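Training component of the fellowship. As part of building independent skills, the fellow (R.M.) carried out the full modelling exercise for a liganded target. The chosen ligand was zinc ion. The inputs are recorded below so that the supervisory panel can assess the work.
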Amino acid sequence: MYGAGDVRIENVPDARLVEATDAIVRVSLACICGSDLWPYKLMEAGEKSRVMGHEAIGAVEAVGADVRTVKIGDVVLMPFAYSDGTCDFCHEGLHTSCVHGGFFGTPALAGAQAEAVRIPLADGTLFVLSVSKDDSLMPSLLTLSDVMGTGHHAARSARVSRGKRVAIVGDGAVGLCGVIAARRLGAEQIILLGRHADRIALAKDFGATDVVSERGEAAVDRVKELTQGFGVHSVLECVGTDQAIHTAIAIARPGGAVGRVGVPHYETIPEAQPTFYNNITVSGGPAPVRAYIEELLPDILEGKIQPGRVFDRVVGLDDVPDGYRAMNERESIKVMIKS
Ligand SMILES: [Zn+2]
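Fellow's submitted model of the complex:
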């Protein structure tokens, strides 16, 4: 990515081992993420170009001398952040705060919208899958790199549990996975705030019980109508805009919680007085998806959840620029890249 709206497919130097704890993964499946659309909209032309992408499944092609558990030929899933798996925060299940960790697809580390990707701290980062590369579950497994784990984190942060009323702000892939997560955790009422017919249909399949397509105050009023005037116990904020966080806080009932997983593009958390007087918890952050793989994987393998249905377009590497355009124009929910 060179700047807003400027994605090019180019030959770059091959990914190679740098540290003894690295692995090189040959990418078979990758994705374009909703969060990739932020630089696609806002990146300035003068900024250093970067290799985007932080979600992938592939085969291990090379390992450094100190890699112990990951082996050449393993089919592996890559979480959007790398982590050592051994520090205090990794032990607490907060791998995105790993003291040696970092993020893929940044100016500092090339990402996975590529033929191959260098994985730092391979033993801690990669999750070895016991499936073959052409398994039909691959699209759903791929969502464990980010969107399914992130939707689950939103639900956990918003304290979803059995019998609760839940609202999801945002009908992108993460919001839709948030519907799956809320259902999975036993929510009784699941209200999706979204406006796109294809996404609403999928959300209903995933377990949404109500849909609110109004915006701003009208959306708040509608959610209140659907919840006996009180609002919901749990709000999954999956957008990150100023309007989304305002709405999320306004529809939380007293004692409720908002789980934020949309990268915030606002400077301060709003509504200091309502959150105070209503005892509303505002929580969330980058999802430690590495910690959630083991919990979510069995449900995918058993066919209980099918988050891979968020992919509604498959492109080859050469068509990645058009994939960005399609997602940015809301023509596609989420694009899978097959190399
Ligand atoms: Zn760590």
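The panel noted the following from the submitted structure. DSSP finds twelve helices and 15 strands in the chain. Residues 83-84, 86-87, 89-90, 98-101 surround zinc ion (CB under 6 Å).
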